[in-house]
Amino acid sequence: MRRMPGKAHLTAGYAGGESGARAAARTGSAVVVVDALRASATIAVIVSRGSRVVPVASIERARSHAGADFRAGERGSAKVAGFDFGNSPTEIMEAEVPPGSTVVLSTTNGTRVIEGSRGAPAILTGAFVNASALADALASGSYGPRLVVVGCGWEGRRASEDEAAAGAILHRLQERGFELDGRALRIVDAYHSRPAKLLRNSAAAKRLQSLGYERDLDFCLAEDTVPVVPRLVGGVFVRESSWRISTSKNLRPDGQWKKRN
After folding, report:
1. For residues 24 and 43, what is the distance between their CA atoms, to the nearest angstrom?
2. Whole-model pTM?
3. How far apart are CA 120 and CA 102, in angstroms?
4. What's the pLDDT tens digit per position in 98-130?
5. Taking the CA atoms of the chain, what radius of gyration do you get in angstroms?
6. Helices 160-175 and 131-138: crossing angle, nearest 10°?
7. Contacts of residue 253, Cβ cutoff 8 Å, sequence gap at least 6
8. Exposed/middle/buried for residue 98 (C-beta within 10 Å: 0-12, 13-18, 19+)
9. CA distance 123 to 117
10. Phi first, then psi: what are they for 149, rounded to 5°?
């Protein structure tokens, strides 16, 4: 797409896994972490309800995190024993999670890649469910001229559903004037050519089906159903439209959230 005269030159690339996230952060790029099944969708649902998400890589850190109202997480797609929720957007949608709650989340892949992104000027999460809202926000240029969409994959391997969701986001960015690098263009081409039926037959989809999470699969593969932009601020994911208003009174000088009374 041709850029309008005077419009900032915005570019986007694609990378995979923790190593890709670290490389993007080192270059000073904004990072969009994509874990389509299911961490990105779970985070989107939680922040859409006015709550916060603290992503942590390990189960031990999730258990010991002070100030948690709820704990959510999975290993191998199965709910972590003793946690309030699995990594399930539909389960959390149906639960009574009060606005303002803090949910600590630990997952097999997504939260590790988020941790690998630390140091990037902006860290956001995206999936099929919020692809357009995310693209609209990024097209404002307020996250800098360069961003990288990172597909989490599964335990170091590529995951077709993450690449497809990344393609959905990159396609929308291209429509809004972003210049995509070669790898990002290939991811977009794959998004257009990969039917939803194939995604339902992926290894991740089969794991969810075997564990009884068919509703999560339907939810996570639907496009633009949760129009929010989760952004990591002081180690906590919040809804982008609201964090700027509350930052000055809710963040300590060291960038961490104040404890709730």
Report:
1. 21
2. 0.89
3. 23
4. 999 999 999 999 999 999 999 999 999 999 999
5. 17
6. 50
7. none
8. exposed
9. 7
10. -90, 125
Question: In order of start, what are the domains of the chain with their CATH numbers?
Answer: 11-250 (3.90.1560.10)
Per-residue pLDDT tens over the stretch 5-16: 445 799 999 999
Q: How many H helices and E strands in the chain?
A: 12, 11
29, 119, 120, 144 from 11: Cα distances, Å: 10, 19, 16, 9
Gap between the Cα atoms of 244 and 233, Å rounded: 10
Arithmetic mean of pLDDT over the chain: 91
Helices 160-175/182-193 angle, 10° precision = 110
Read off the pLDDT of residues 56-108 as tens digits, 9 standing for 90 and up. 999 999 999 999 999 999 999 999 999 999 999 999 999 989 999 999 999 99
**The tokens 């303002």 sit on which residue?**
100
CA distance 65 to 198: 38
Backbone angles phi, psi at 22, to 5 degrees: -65, -40
Rounded Cα distance, 21 and 124, in Å: 12
